[in-house]
Amino acid sequence: MPKIDILNINGEKVDELVLSDNVFGAEVNEHVLYEVVKNQLANKRQGTQSAKTRSEVRGGGRKPWRQKGTGRARQGSTRSPQWVGGGIVFAPKPRDYRYTLPKKVRRLAMKCALSSKVQNKEIIVLDALNMEAPKTKEFAKILNNLKVEKKALVVLGENNKNVIKSASNIEGVTTAQVNTINVYDILKHDAFIITKDAVEKVEEVYA
């Protein structure tokens, strides 16, 4: 079972935590991660893009020149796709890109994502993360104590408005709760900061 240090907000080791081998020690399946990330990005698409086909473009009713005798290629309309101002071939139309993946695949991908953070030593477990008031400067100081310089995902065990507001103005930092974390966000961020109580909830949900 993977063992990891528990730090306080000053970056000091206060304890050790044995992580669940089933959740944080799974074999990383890159194909499953790819399928789930692709699914998440597809589900985020608005699908509102639209262009006009030759039947929808205005004009082009009159034949531009006679069929034979001009030496030029025959043309039936100035709104054919090869003309400037003509319609688009196979024009995109509004559609829904959403599709679903099996629950087992989604659960496996989450375990793989969490395990990859442990294997790459990109996970930081905090004993607690509480703030008396929303202060961006104080939160930035905490990140500095933890030696986090790049994108970071902060996972909380419960809704903490002060922490969320403090982190919202820092570029590259995203906050989430156990029930809102997803594979794409975990992989997109370089550092994975999670509180001890959130680890327990994650292990309970994905055990």
TrEMBL record:
One of its GO terms (cellular component) is ribosome. Residues 44-85 are annotated as: Disordered. Pfam families: Ribosomal_L4. Residues 60-71 have a biased composition (Basic residues). PANTHER family: 50S RIBOSOMAL PROTEIN L4 (PTHR10746), LARGE RIBOSOMAL SUBUNIT PROTEIN UL4M (PTHR10746:SF6). One of the primary rRNA binding proteins, this protein initially binds near the 5'-end of the 23S rRNA. It is important during the early stages of 50S assembly. It makes multiple contacts with different domains of the 23S rRNA in the assembled 50S subunit and ribosome. Belongs to the universal ribosomal protein uL4 family. This is Large ribosomal subunit protein uL4.
